[in-house]
Amino acid sequence: MPKDIxxxxxxxxxxxxxxxxxxxxxxxxxxxxxYPKPRPKFSPVPYTLLFHxxxxxxxxxxxxxxxxxxxxxxxxxxxxEAYDALCNADKILTLEEVDKLKKSTPILLKKDYExxxxxxxxxxxxxPDLSMLDNVARKLLNHxxxxx
Length: 148
Known about the structure:
The protein contains seven helices and no strands.
């Protein structure tokens, strides 16, 4: 009588949450790239697309590093806190880019930029530079892409 043969296969763990966040971050970024140019003097749309892209990408990296969804939720709209919670290997931004995240966090938390505000449309000091946010989003997306 033949002996039973037992083959053990290592467990495969997929973190679908991290991949889903990355997918949606990329989608928001792609819509930003396709947004009509030249842009109006002020529109909340490109900011919303970039803020969401960055936030979702940070959440993806946090989940990939082993953080639980319940831990990651506490970083909603808190870009700098989410970035600070990343493992060192994922902290790839320059000091200037980190400073932009720091300045963007209160704007994103308040969410008043989404509505017409004279201060937002008139003050470059109030809103972060779109090209810098674009660089941050692209850098995080490209970094995470290489680790998926």
